[in-house]
Amino acid sequence: MPRPDDALARGIPRDAGAVPGATPRPAETWLRLVQVHDRITHRVDSALHRQHGLSLTAFEALRRVAESPGARASMGQLAEALGLSRAGVTSTVNRLVADGLVLRERGGTDRRLLHARLTPAGRQRVEQAAATHDDLVAHLLSMLGDDAPLVTDALARVSAAARGRR
């Protein structure tokens, strides 16, 4: 009669989580999410710096402004969209203003509100950088293969659940 330790001797792990294809532990899933985010962010940020002189944050800010009505967005809208503090968005917009990519202007009816408006140079830069960003992200995420819809749906559910818990 085989003893329980015989399975270990034959290379069968006790922990089902160690078996390829088994359900991973939450800590393993968390680690993979963080690694993927960090690695993709680093690769894309490096490519944008090298090819367009933009950080990933600056690119995302330009893209949000470009996609806003009238190519104009308030600092609050940018902070919310980028997940930055007001100070962080102000710093990012200051660099974009210094580079001639956006203009800072007061709001229409509420003169207290500041908006960032895309300049023609900003529109040209974001369009060029978007191709680099989108192609690189698409290439890296193509590694998901046929699992992309499943992963996207699962991450959307996790994101929605996390959003409601502050």
In the CATH hierarchy, the third-tier topology of the domain at 54-131 is known as Arc Repressor Mutant, subunit A
**Spatial extent as radius of gyration:** 23 Å
Amount of beta strand: 5-15%
- What is the number of E strands? 3
Main sheet record? 3 strands, antiparallel
Region (Disordered): 1-24
Protein name: MarR family transcriptional regulator
Domain HTH marR-type: 26-160
Question: What does it look like?
Answer:
- The protein has 166 residues and is mainly alpha-helical.
- The protein has a domain of 78 residues: Winged helix-like DNA-binding domain superfamily/Winged helix DNA-binding domain (Arc Repressor Mutant, subunit A, Orthogonal Bundle).
- The protein has 7 helices and 3 strands, in the order αααβααββαα.
- A 3-stranded antiparallel sheet has the order 1-3-2.
- A hairpin with a 7-residue loop joins strand 2 and strand 3.
- Helix 3 crosses helix 5, helix 3 crosses helix 6 and helix 4 packs across helix 5.
- It is elongated.
- The mean pLDDT is 88.
- It holds the Pfam family MarR_2.
Can you tag this structure with a few keywords?
single chain, 166 residues, mainly alpha, Arc Repressor Mutant, subunit A, 3-stranded antiparallel beta sheet, 63% helix, 8% strand
